[in-house]
Amino acid sequence: MTPASSPSSPGASSWSGNPQSLLPGTHRRLDHLLAAEQVASRLPSVVAGLVRDGALVWSGGAGTTGLDGGAGGAGRPGPDTQYRTGSITKTFVAAAVLRAVEDELVGLEDPVRAHLPELAGGVGRVTVGQLLGQAGGVQAETDGPWWERTSGGDWDSLVPLLGESAVRHRPGTRFHYSNVGFGVLGELVGRVRQGTWRDVVRTQFLEPLGMDRTTMRPVSPAARGLAVHPWADVVLPEPEHDAGAMAPAGQIWSTVLDLARWAGVVAGRSQVLRRSTVEEMWRPQSVDDARGAGWAAGYGLGLQLWNVAGRRYAGHSGSMPGFVAMLRVDVETGDGVVALTNSTTGFGDLAHRLLQTLAEAEPHTPQAWVPRDVPADVLALVGPWYWGPAPLSLRAVRVGAQDGLELAGLAGRGRGSRFVRAEGVPGAWRGLDEYYGGELLRPVLAADGSVSHLDLASFRLTRTPYDPGADVPGGVDERGWTAAP
């Protein structure tokens, strides 16, 4: 086939399903970026797409796909061309586990052996949540042949490898990426649903989302997995197989069009998973800061997380011999990117650069401010408060569809949190995040029915610094505020 970097290789082309959604200049910038990456990284082919407001607003491809998985011919990649997604598969398995959690079939604190009793020790003592969060300490790869390049055995052949020696680190203490752990999770979700993980993923996600080009093995048109020689413009076909019990770690094939729909799920904008479940998936379970430089990458519940200059992204990368893939969403805006190539060595930060180009060229228009109804009991709480002498502010906000409160320190000081009404505790509010996450804020009323003070996890917040009328624990010096201590 024609080497990917030769002058005769075709450049990038767009196939956006909604060409009016982005400006022509933005399309040209994105097309150029993709074409330049195909040449610079010597990719046989590369495809990508950008998602905004749940719709695919740009997609494009460059290069040639090599031998088609079904037809045996070479051709240009398109939005319906399949590529192997590698570890993006893990996001589907994780979503299936969390649907089982929603249905109360599984608990995140359950030890794996509660659902797979044949794993009495070793991996069996690790919790479901630890496996999902890559914090179980389970070995990264299987013992024996390189599983990514050899046909996999069944579950019974994997079980003997999951004893105590498979737990490399004390569970819950550090980030340690484990493909083996997701092999276990795939078996677990199939077991609790009395089927296979493949069936669960298909019926719960692929069919409802219309992802009919997402399959477990390649279906034409599909790109051929290739390795590109490091020092010459020649390629080598890579093997493709069923990974067996390890398939939940990296089996799925998909397309730009289908993965754009899945990006909407990862962004929390789909009905197939509750929004609250997706927000839990975004929450870091382990972070990769082994060198002590502060975390830039971590892992939530089945999702990779990236912290780029304080901005949070979620999704997953994927790689298998012959393929590299990326799905990433900005959790604040919901913008998403998908990128796929049929090269073992893949691309660099292409996906992030595409997403950044979109954000810079066509930033989101802020939603207009409009007045809204605020309940009287909320209005009674807003305004300045004091934690001892430290000034705080309490504002009325919306948290999703709920009335909420946001506590913040003034002048950069003081602990903050968001609060929503506490279920089952009349008049109280429960913290959602930061220091007061899970803690109760209780308004305490005076004899006349007005709010005297706030009890926040035993701290007393008052309308004036150390208000003596608010029964401050430890009392308030009877001399009051004075220049002479």
TrEMBL record:
Entry keyword set: Hydrolase
Ranges of compositional bias, category Low complexity: 1-17
Domain DUF7586: 374-463
Record GO terms (molecular function): hydrolase activity
E.C. designation(s): 3.-.-.-
Signal peptide region: none
Residue ranges constituting the Beta-lactamase-related domain according to the UniProt record: 35-350
Gene3D superfamilies: DD-peptidase/beta-lactamase superfamily
Annotated region (Disordered), positions in chain: 1-24
Keyword Hydrolase (UniProt): yes
UniProt name for this protein: Serine hydrolase domain-containing protein
The species this protein was found in: Kineococcus halophytocola
Lineage, broadest ranks: Bacteria, Bacillati, Actinomycetota, Actinomycetes, Kineosporiales
